[in-house]
Amino acid sequence: MSERAFTLGIDVGTTSVKVVAVEDSGEVIAEAESTQPLATPRPGWTEQQPADWWDGACKAVREIVARLDGRQPDAVGLTGQMHGMVPLDADGEVIRPAILWNDQRTGDAVREIDAAIGRRTLIERGGNPAITGFQLAKVVWLKHAEPDSFRRLRHVLFPKDYLGFRLTGRAVAEPSDASGSNCFDLAKGVWDVDILSELGIAAELYPELVASDAIVGTVTEAAAAATGLRAGTPVVAGAGDNAAAATGLGLSSANPEQGSVSLGTSGVLFAPIARPTPDPMGRVHLFCHADGGYYLLGVTLAAAGSLQWLRDTLFPGMDFAELSALAESSAPGANGVLFQPYLAGERTPYMDPELRGAWRGLTLATRQADLIRAVLEGVAFSQRDSLEVMRPLTSPTRLLATGGGSRSRFWLQILADAMELPLTQLAGAPGASYGAALLAHRGLGGEAQPHLQEVASVAPKPDPALGAAYAEYRALSPGAL
Predict the structure, then answer these.
(1) Which of 112, 178, 322, 364 is most buried, taking the most CB atoms under 10 A from its CB?
(2) Rounded to 5 degrees, what are φ and ψ at 2?
(3) How confident is the model over 325-378, as pLDDT tens digits?
(4) Is 241 among the catalytic positions?
(5) Which of 192, 241, 291, 370 is catalytic?
């Protein structure tokens, strides 16, 4: 029997580089991962060395090629953490460490962008207000804080596109990452030259734009020697991690009825949408999807992260299954205890990095179980906040549930109750690297289908008590904290 065609998907994550090999049947045949350091040189700063991404990718790719007895992929697709800034000089050398998506140093830059462009214009043209984590604010920061570095700047890349540059020698970007820059015109699909000009930033710093499934080049001889790949292997642009992960789940802008909700460290509500229609107040993100359409993204910064904080702070040594079991002994509404999960500030719907978490309704009768259930419910309610903002724009009727928190059927039931939507639990939901591999198949003219295994469906059974607690929760303005 002849060997099936396969592609590699490479994901430049925040904690590691992950590589997956996927056959044209959609089946994963090999995986590898290489961890990498994260630097925090000052409070609120997060940086990484792009060289570490490259080294990690080379190591993981070599491991997969060896595991497959030297078989070579037909193409490579790329994905990675969004919003990061990789500054290169005229020789393609990295000028300074990459500034990442969760870096918070750019508050003054955001205020400068708002003053020069205006919040309404940013939302109407780019789908999002100026945000500290987005790439444009990082470039503005570099201009003022490190003028010598800015003078050397000739190319601004996203993390995955730096990897593409190392593989092929060609600097490009694609819409799903570009739409998270704050300087991309969603309707026209081009860099917004007017915004860049107002800020004194040369449009020439930004790379050529290509489609997410476009072949951007081939593996060079030097890259082949470093990675173990065959020189001449096609490299497909790929997509930012959210769009790539959605591709791996089969979520399409042609089918807006189905979205996804992720209970990872952060909580993410993904809703495909056919046209670039932003929330007028900019309370949810609007980005380009890898399929040529668009998607809305609601983000809770501390979802499972809130539960981990609770465990580490108040219940050390207890595993998450035990926490869930204890929470089940508390009634819906957590006996009047409400939790606001703003432990790391908040994105949707407040877009406020200074927002802080709180428990409300504590009494002498509050038990451990109430505290835990309140955290689970508070995260679910925050996801409902995202859904409420999206509803005038799109209305998903079914959600695929992913992320570590989705392994808890109890938490999924709370989430289904709060959102009043059916959820489908998946076994081993694929990550962004899987979606990048599918995009590589698409770039070759194929159409590998996602290989998903559903565990169970959780139907919505709204509980009146929980509904009452939810209504009370929504009435509490974060401004009152």
Answers:
(1) 178
(2) -70, 150
(3) 999 999 988 999 999 999 988 889 998 888 999 999 999 999 999 999 999 999
(4) yes
(5) 241
